[in-house]
Design brief:
The chain is an alpha/beta fold and 430 residues long. The protein has a domain of 248 residues. It has a five-stranded mixed beta sheet, sandwiched between helices. The protein has a two-stranded antiparallel ribbon with strand order 1-2. Strand 3 and strand 4 form a beta hairpin. Helix 1 packs across helix 3, helix 5 crosses helix 6 and helix 10 packs antiparallel against helix 13. The radius of gyration is 30 Å and the shape is elongated. The relative contact order is 0.09. This is Mutator family transposase.
């Protein structure tokens, strides 16, 4: 086994672009075969992968110090150069295959600065990426620490994990302040609530704005932590910030039925159409009805929001009022109060109706966020909550397939938007 390890360590490096194909397949098969024959595990503490990682890292470090000094180990050319090797120091680093103890070469002048495992570096970059990925999926610091211990035999404290995830804060600030497109066909806005411990645990809204670009891509414009309950006044602050970051025009803003929100939208983008989310209207309607009547109420309201025209919707709503108004007058008042923001989408083609009649686009994002924050219980402060939500949305589409589905779904609607809004999309892009 030792001879095989040495062969790997001194094997000829593969050429550019060859990647794993440049490795000697026969050598790999021999390594695996000898490991199994000798009872050596491939993974886990002391396994083949850990030993290979140790040899590869030490070989790379030896190559770095050779480049630094300008001569190979034991080469007579190094005599009298003023600097030379000065033994090694042991160091334990956390890698993707667990903790690995390596020997780091030193020089007499202490001027050697290794790059593959820098001074004071205790983790390889892949470990940091793993921790951030696990955090984005909703695992707590304690769960991540336990996971690394169980799977890799690595001892990583909660504080270290928190320090790793804090690295994303700088990127989050840059992302939050990036310039935005001058025009968006649709912006969906909504708020979710998280528990923050600030003296005492309280529900705090996290405001989310999701836009569809002129190319049909999903773009989350930002995240904002509010104080107290969701309010139109804070939404005015959020929308104003978006305008200051370059959003000069929005064709339609889809939102829930929060009082005062249409006025806030009109203040920032006077030409924007405010569309109430049908899903929110239905959900709020159920709050005033007994559970046993939910299915019947949903069936009775469907002809209202699927009517071909506003006049048709009024007729169907009159029928609903006659059938259910006596039992549930609060539902009738709810729809009456929301009517002005409910009907705009009825004036558009089916291609537009299908994509803006609900906030399902942002609801799917919110569902991912809720999964991430649910395991936390509550957060120590506002920034911890924002960091968790940011990590969750940055991991929304790891394969890129979601981006393709969005583009295919929105392409017909974008053409209809450009016609219905008399070229405002085209003008905004130019």
């Amino acid at each position: 086994m030792t001879e095989m390890m040495a062969d790997v360590e001194h094997a000829e490096e593969p050429g550019p672009g060859s990647g794993l194909d440049g490795l000697d397949e026969q050598l790999v098969e021999q390594l695996v075969g000898q490991a199994r024959a000798g009872g050596l595990q491939l993974t886990g503490e002391g396994g083949l992968l850990q030993q290979l990682t140790k040899r590869v890292l030490e070989s790379a470090l030896e190559g770095e110090i050779t480049d630094h000094l300008g001569y190979d180990k034991h080469d007579p050319a190094g005599r009298g150069t003023g600097n030379s090797r000065n033994g090694v120091r042991s160091k334990t680093v956390l890698t993707d295959v667990g903790e690995v103890e390596i020997d780091v070469p030193r020089d007499r002048e202490a001027s050697f600065e290794p790059r593959i495992v820098a001074k004071r570096q205790k983790r390889l970059s892949g470990v940091d990426e793993m921790v951030i990925s696990l955090s984005a999926k909703g695992l707590t610091t304690g769960e991540i620490s336990a996971h690394l211990g169980e799977v890799y035999g690595a001892r990583v404290s909660r504080q270290t994990i928190s320090t790793i995830t804090d690295k994303v804060v700088e990127g989050m600030v840059e992302w939050q302040n990036r310039p935005l497109d001058p025009v968006y066909p649709v912006v969906f806005i909504d708020a979710i609530h998280v528990k923050v411990r600030d003296g005492q645990v309280s529900n705090r809204p996290i405001y989310v704005a999701l836009a569809v670009t002129c190319e049909g891509h999903r773009d989350i414009l930002g995240l904002w932590a509010g104080d107290g309950g969701e309010g139109a006044k804070y939404w005015l602050h959020v929308l104003t910030e978006l305008k200051n970051r370059g959003v000069a025009d929005v064709l339609m803003v889809v939102c829930d039925g929060l009082a005062g929100l249409p006025d806030a939208i009109g203040t920032v983008w006077p030409r924007a159409i405010t569309q109430t989310c049908i899903v929110h209207l239905l959900r709020n309607s159920f709050r005033y009805a007994g559970r046993q009547h939910w299915a019947a109420i949903a069936k009775a309201l469907k002809p209202v929001y699927t009517a071909p025209t506003e006049a048709g919707a009024k007729e169907r709503f009159a029928e609903f009022t006659e059938a259910w108004g006596g039992r549930y007058p609060a539902i009738v008042r709810l729809w009456d109060n929301a009517w002005a923001e409910f009907v705009p989408f009825l004036a558009f083609d089916p291609e537009i109706r299908r994509v803006i009649c609900s906030t399902n686009a942002i609801e799917s994002v919110n569902a991912r966020i809720r999964r991430a924050v649910k395991a936390r219980g509550h957060f120590p402060n506002e920034q911890a909550a924002l960091k968790c939500v940011y990590l969750a949305i940055m991991s929304l589409d790891p394969t890129g397939n979601g981006r393709k589905r969005w583009t295919m779904r929105w392409k017909p609607a974008l053409n209809a938007f450009d016609i219905a809004f008399e070229g405002r999309l085209t003008t905004g892009r130019n």
